[in-house]
UniProtKB/TrEMBL annotation:
InterPro entries: DAP_DH_C, NAD(P)-bd_dom_sf. Residues 146-348 form the 2,4-diaminopentanoate dehydrogenase C-terminal domain. This is 4-hydroxy-tetrahydrodipicolinate reductase. It comes from the Bacteria.
Length: 354
């Protein structure tokens, strides 16, 4: 069976998703939405960095693409600074009877226990109204802290604690808005950026904690957040901007799920703009890794290193896009509703071996 797909945005993740859609034999690209006139009218292949034209031209006309009634929209538009608008976009697609696989808003990966029912119910109702499904995922939040740790737990006799970590040098991460506006790199240490405002970390990554807890039949008493920041000892040049000495250049945050005062499940990020910063913080395997640690019987530590063209940051973006594309057939075939990783079968890179 062939699934008709519209790619929604061609930014940091979207252009890699576009490449992945084009590479899949079971997927037919039927449309591409772009946010600005500079990309409108250009062939999808050009936007994806491919040589062979597809004949599919990008457009800024959302209604034109919705009218195509594709089987699925792959939505990768930036949502961190427009959460409510992004949710409304997703509901519009669902009401039109179009299944959606999306990279954001990330709290929809597993919103139960994180969002109130009045925020979840309208999305579920839109899905039921249109007879369509929505699945939000990626690499983190996503498969690096849902299926990866859950696979390891199947080899456990006893589990005392699970910690999922992203330990990365972000100096090559090609998203200045995220680096400087949302994460606050280059800002004064006493100025809290959007990401570190009270409740934001638990909103974004609390879904990781609660999904793992649900999969392992664990009742949590609370989900809390903590963070540390480290200044640049000297000026650093990152993404064509200067991070001045004394401003934030490393960030470590942790979201903890506890029961009876004991941490059972944790998600930690250790992000540096230079590998020499904060040497006492956890260090990655290679230049960057996703790490899963399970304390119990036996103890496990899995370090997943990833590279694309020698760049681990780019590899994370490629992995985010590919995971979404791989899931399209399963999401289209699923019962209508708001799906989580616990609802889907194993999705693989079927047909990609060259």
């Amino acid at each position: 069976m062939t699934y008709r797909v519209v790619q929604w945005s061609t930014g940091n993740v979207g252009r890699w998703a576009l490449r992945s859609i084009i590479a899949r034999r079971e997927l037919e690209l039927v449309g591409v939405w772009v946010s600005g006139p500079d990309k409108a009218g250009r062939d999808a292949a050009e936007l994806a960095g491919l040589d062979e034209p597809t004949g599919i031209l990008a457009t800024t006309d959302a209604q034109e693409l919705i009218a195509l009634r594709p089987d699925c929209i792959l939505h990768t538009a930036m949502a961190d600074d427009r959460l409510l608008e992004a949710v409304e976009d997703l509901k519009t697609f669902l009401r039109a009877g179009i299944n959606v696989v999306s990279s954001s808003p990330v709290f929809l990966q597993y919103p139960y226990g994180t969002l109130p029912s009045e925020a979840i119910d309208p999305i579920v109702e839109a899905a039921r109204e249109g007879g369509a499904s929505l699945w939000v995922n990626g690499i983190d939040p996503g498969w690096a802290n849902d299926w990866l740790p859950l696979l390891l737990t199947s080899g456990s006799e006893r589990i005392d604690r699970i910690v999922c970590s992203e330990i990365m040098d972000y100096s090559t991460y090609d998203n200045p808005k995220v680096l400087f506006d949302i994460m606050g790199f280059g800002s004064k240490l006493d100025e809290l950026p959007m990401l570190l405002q009270p409740g934001v970390l638990t909103l974004a990554w609390g879904s990781v904690i609660r999904q793992l807890a649900a999969a392992l039949d664990v009742e949590l008493d609370s989900v809390t957040q903590t963070f540390e920041r480290h200044p640049a000892p000297e000026a650093l040049r990152v993404a064509d901007r200067t991070v001045e000495a004394g401003t934030a250049a490393a960030l470590r945050f942790r979201i903890s799920g506890t029961r009876s005062g004991r941490e059972l499940i944790a998600l930690e990020h250790v992000t540096r703009l230079h590998p020499d910063l904060a040497p006492d913080w956890p260090q990655p395997a290679g230049k960057g890794c996703y790490r899963v640690e399970i304390e119990g019987e036996p103890d496990y530590q899995l370090d997943l290193q990833l590279y694309s063209g020698g760049d681990h940051a780019r590899a994370g973006v490629v992995g985010t896009a590919a995971r979404l594309v791989s899931a399209i057939p399963a999401v289209v075939e699923a019962e209508p509703g708001l799906l989580t990783a616990l609802d889907l079968p194993l999705t693989t890179g079927r047909g990609l071996v060259s």
